[in-house]
Design brief:
heterodimer, A: 73 residues, mainly alpha, elongated, B: 368 residues, Hydantoin permease, 0% strand
Chain lengths: 73, 368
């Protein structure tokens, strides 16, 4: 947990002051959105909360709903 | 306005493509379990099928000089549909990059450092790739030949050291496997090493001259395909039918090197080569992903997004599959099926639409 906080604090320190100084608000907004997603996912991982896998959903869509699959064996 | 100022030349494009395809050497193991001793045929067939499609990527990049895939999609399909297609591509880049980062973690945890936590490798590897990406495509292009030469050196030297243990009757009988398995093998090869080069549509816009792009792309692709072919031939000739039971046939075959009991335990060579090549591939993929997302948001620079996206990739890579078996099972089916439109349909379709609509001259004319 402490490593996670340190890593994410480091990411803020090296990105945010420059963006504010250059008044790049659009870049700061995009950075904040992705940063929040990354931090939330990392926190879930560290706290052992299951992170949903996009491939599971995709597999369900392709194999179970559309019925496209190569025969096994 | 472009978010990347760096330029590459067509010679660098050649090495970028060759190194990118070589980065998938570890991934031919997905095919080996299905196509067994006929993997070499599948690689050649995959190349034959993919080459015209990949050349259509170059034709598209030449038609829209200085533009990347997201800009091309916006122009060809319109603002809304174009964004939707670009988001589909971004999803593909996110997933493919996470699979490749996971491959490195699995390689180290399975073969090299079993006691180290899996997530540690993912974090260190993603951070290294992020550092490379912040340097830009120009720097990656300038060092690309070193990666290709390293890969070729390991592939050729291990082939030579294993010649005395090769049995070429392992390739027989030819055409033994059912057609559906060969078809699935060709599908895997045409998507995973070759089709993934669709990512270069984000890079080709940075070419300073597009004159020799077709020739150099094809040459780079050939170097990559030849590397895969040599590895497949080596593994089949050395391991025969047993290659399907090993987690990594390459590691297993290299472990058999024994030259006068002096040159033994050479598997570290494969460890080094695969780390270096996957690093190169992942750096290119991360660069492509970051530039695509920045372009979608309409940013002036892609640099602020490098670390947050690398952070997302680490967690996706750590959680996307439950085990290496799950990884192989999903990749051999859903993983290759969902990417077919992105690799085989959209780029040629974009080219066709651009020709019919007379793009981009018409758009430029309208703008001016």
């Amino acid at each position: 947990m402490i490593y996670l906080l340190l890593i994410y604090a480091f990411i803020i320190i090296i990105n945010v002051p420059g963006l504010i100084k250059r008044k790049e608000w659009r870049e700061l907004t995009a950075f904040s959105i992705l940063y929040a997603i990354a931090f939330a996912l990392s926190l879930m991982y560290v706290l052992d909360i299951p992170v949903p896998s996009p491939m599971k959903g995709l597999k369900h869509l392709i194999v179970d709903i559309l019925g496209i699959e190569y025969p096994q064996g | 306005m472009s978010i990347e100022r760096g330029k590459i030349n067509s010679q660098q494009l050649l090495f970028l493509i060759a190194g990118f395809v070589q980065g998938s050497i570890l991934l031919i193991d997905f095919t080996v379990g299905i196509t067994e001793h006929q993997t070499w045929m599948v690689i050649l067939a995959g190349l034959a099928i993919s080459a015209p499609v990949i050349l259509s990527y170059v034709a598209l990049a030449k038609r829209f000089p200085g533009m990347n895939l997201v800009q091309i999609n916006d122009m060809v399909y319109g603002r809304f549909l174009g964004k939707a297609v670009s988001m589909y591509y971004i999803f593909f880049f996110v997933m493919t990059l996470s699979f490749n980062i996971r491959d490195v973690g699995e390689l180290y945890v399975t073969f090299l450092m079993q006691d180290t936590p899996f997530i540690f490798f993912l974090v260190v590897f993603a951070a290294t790739c992020a550092y490379a990406v912040t340097k830009g495509i120009e720097v990656l292009g300038r060092v690309s030949h070193l990666f290709v030469v390293t890969g070729l050196f390991v592939i050729i030297s291990t082939f030579i050291l294993l010649i005395d243990q090769m049995d070429f009757s392992n390739f027989l009988p030819l055409f033994e496997l059912p057609f559906i398995r060969i078809f699935q093998g060709i599908h895997i090869v045409s998507i995973i090493p070759f089709g993934e080069t669709v990512a270069f549509l984000m890079i080709m816009g940075r070419l300073n001259k597009t004159e020799h792009a077709v020739k150099r792309t094809f040459f780079g692709l050939s170097i990559g395909a030849l590397s895969l072919l040599v590895v497949a031939v080596r593994n089949t000739a050395v391991l025969g039918r047993t290659q399907t039971i090993w987690t990594s046939p390459s590691f297993q075959s290299i472990r058999l090197i024994n030259i006068g009991t002096v040159l033994t335990r050479m598997d570290f060579l494969i460890g080094i080569a695969q780390t270096v090549l996957i690093f190169f591939k992942c750096s290119l993929f991360l660069y492509v992903l970051v530039v695509a997302v920045s372009q979608l948001f309409g940013l002036k620079s892609y640099l602020p997004l490098v670390l947050p996206l690398a952070g997302i990739e680490v967690i996706v890579a750590a959680t996307v599959f439950q085990s290496p078996v799950d990884h192989a099972m999903i990749t051999q089916n859903a993983g290759i099926i969902y990417s077919v439109p992105l690799v085989f349909i959209f780029p040629p379709l974009s080219l066709l639409i651009a020709k019919i609509r007379g793009l981009p001259k018409f758009e430029r004319g309208k703008e001016t």
